[in-house]
Model the fold of this input.
Amino acid sequence: MQPNFENTAIAFELKSDSQLERAYFLFKMIANEPLVRIGTAVTNFAIKAHLPVEGLIRATVFDHFCGGVNEEDCLPIIDKMYEKGVCSILDYSAEGKEVDNQFDFAMEKTLEVLDFVKEKDAIPFAVFKPTGFGRFKLFEMMSAGLELTDDQQAEWNRIVNRYEKVCKKAHDLDVALLIDAEESWMQKAADDLVLKMMRKYNKEKAIVFNTFQMYRWDRMEYIKQVHQLAKEEGFKYGAKVVRGAYMEKENERAQEKGYPTPICKSKKETDENFDAAIQYLMDHLDIFTVFSGTHNEQSCHKLVSLMAEKKLDPNDNSVWFGQLFGMSDHITYNLAAAGYNAVKYVPYGPVRDVMPYLIRRAEENTSVAGQTSRELALLQKERKRRKLDD
Done:
């Protein structure tokens, strides 16, 4: 059954009138590119200067896009969403850390979340970012095949141990673990490390998931390679498929350093690449478990149709749909209402630490044509519907 993404009553059922107004106000702001740039600069300055802006950030953008400052803080919204059939992924979203004790802290957080996940059906996955567990520069050096000093090698070994600890615990608890993708020039080392974990912990089923960013034109080839490896070596592959979040940065660096951009030439090519990846994974469900992370309605409709073609139940455990908290509620809640496995990524963490994530969200929404105007149109439709019902 195709979900109805126009049903705003289902999409915004959990939002009070004041939360609906706040969402409308926020997306109105985000739709204004110069305003986002100015707001980002002012917010960065205010936080660095330790000005008392956390209350304002918390009451507006933070509470819309984040679940809370810690796990307990997120529980009320997680439980409310689960009542509507929507699962959650708790995502500790502090970014840009540089030292070992911060990486150990992020690892401990992930280990805590794994325990949490085990206890709650509402949270079917845990997640972490590669650079949450180690320095970006080191991933970059490993990806480029550079020789490491003894100290750097010891540091890399600590990163491997963090991955090992978390993946082993996920396996022991039988909890799925998503590992995000980042910039292309550090991704090879992250991919290789994930493969190492999959060989060890995905023998029976997909516990460890890697992320494919399909705005990269080389990813289809890579999917075919890992499929071959998994077949030959006898392990399962958890595949999270997204379009990608670092396009401007990728294009700028390629231009600056004089190499061909790894990004598809157009939005159309990216969409085709994304859909081709989903088709390929769905054709090989003996090896792959599919997590489709997308805010694109057409891609969701296509995957729903593929599931029907393959006679899969909507809630078949081999296919998941995911969107970010605070965005595309019309997709998530209507998928859940139609019985599909729908998940919200729920970022959390101290307000100051989560700011880089929030700024990236605002910039991303501004740069994706049509995303913000679609959100606004649906929010406006729901506002009108409620006024008529009053």
The longest strand covers residues 86-92.
